[in-house]
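Box 3.1 A note on notation
Throughout this textbook, protein chains are presented in two layers. The first layer is the amino acid sequence; the second is a token string describing backbone geometry. Keep the layers aligned when reading.
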Amino acid sequence: MRKRALQAAVLVLALWAAGRAAAETTFELLYSVGGFGIGRQSFDRPVDVVEDREENVYVVDQGNNRIQVLDRRGTFLREWGGRGFTPGLFDKPSAIAIEPVAGSLFVVDRLNHRVQKFDPNGRFLMSFGRLGSGDGDFNRPMDIALDRKGNIFVADTGNNRIEKFDPSGKFILEWGKYARRRRGAELTNPVSIAYSDEGFGYIYVLTSPECVVQKYDIDGVLVKTWPMRPKGESALCGPSRIRIEPRKYTVYIADTENNRLILFDKEGEPLGELRGGKVPLKKPGGLFVNISFGENVVVADTGNHLIQKFRRER
């Protein structure tokens, strides 16, 4: 059931970095749509989202093993998927990434240990990966990112590593704790990954339960690390989602266990938190930041079975 805001909701993003001057960042709630179910505009644990150049939203509806597409107002357009292991079907899909120009979509098919590629209408194009620990194999992968050249980075969670592929799905390299070539720093349980276009490009990796952000260059060399938790904060930490705003490189994290979004600058300095829209966020599992028409943030509000979309005002 669609839930529209009765009026514009302005949300305050309170700064919590020690020593910062008092300030406000405001967001307008554009829409809140969903509710638990199997029908159109209903969801069963939406865990990730992306938005295309026309502001259509592609939702990873994990419990229903499908991708559901909404228009810029949150109205149902189409869907594809279903549970299974043949091309075009899913078993607990966990993440999605979009090519900015072509609009093709890469879906992490977690329990089938593969990545599938589709056109914007849901037509199957290709897949790569299988269960294993060799080059190009996966063990319960959880997240995916694309760089400016179309290279594909996958958080191969069960193998405690990051794998890099070319746009056709051909394996290039890996790094992490159990990588065969021992590249880069050790990784334990990488649950989310994001690409930043700053400089020559960087890869941000979020681990759990340590909840540490690790920043690498595109060849897997570690350049910076910081804790997801502010100093002195003792809070639960579990699988969360990291994404990068592509203009100022603000780091957004869907902090699932603490029912909020938290923000950092690209150097790891905390900026603030966002806890809700029409209803308070409940175990948010994914988000996407689009700057095509202002800075819009789409949130997969997993625990509420909702998609909530905000526009950053300042």
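The two ends are 31 Å apart (CA to CA). Residues 1-23 have pLDDT under 50 and may be disordered.
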